[in-house]
Amino acid sequence: MKEKLIDLFEYTYHFNKEMIKVISENITKVDEKTISLINHTINAQQIWNSRILGEKSFEVWQINPFESLEEINHQNFEKSINIIQDFDLDKRAEYQNSRGTKFENSIFEMLFHAINHSTYHRGQINSLLKQNGIEPLLTDYIFYKR
Fold first, then answer.
1. Distance CA 77, CA 90 (A)
2. Tell me: the pLDDT tens digits for 17-31?
3. Domain boundaries defined on the chain
């Protein structure tokens, strides 16, 4: 199971990186919502990693300097992989959401949510790119595996 989860994070990392690249190449054409969503996508993985690791997290909708997104994405990837390799994925972890409500989930559930969440928002970003006359990326997992 750990190998499959690592594969999914490799997929997530790859297409986050590609999405940052296409936004960068078209920065004068993208709208604020696109910038907000790519930041949110990257921030969310950092937040889930930090919940598992007990570290300080980003704000959900904080806007990072655009030039730092690729490095944050890379750090997120490395931390997620380290969590997969070093933690019992069935272990349950307590955390608080951005509103301060307490929850408990398995580490696997938290990591899988981070993957699924980024896929969802990349789809939204693709819709915005298309609306702004930019060719959307084919980010489906099956395209990544071909």
1. 20
2. 999 999 999 999 999
3. 2-145
Write down the residue that tokens 């709208």 correspond to.
Answer: 31
DSSP H/E element including 94: strand 92-96
Are 19 and 122 in contact by the 8 Å Cβ rule? The answer is yes
Is the pTM value of this prediction over 0.85?
A: yes
SS3 (DSSP) at 103: strand
Task: Enter the CATH code of domain 2-145.
Answer: 1.20.120.450
Q: What is the DSSP string of 21-41?
A: HHHHHTTTT--HHHHHHHHHH
CA-CA distance, 120 to 87, in Å (whole number)?
26
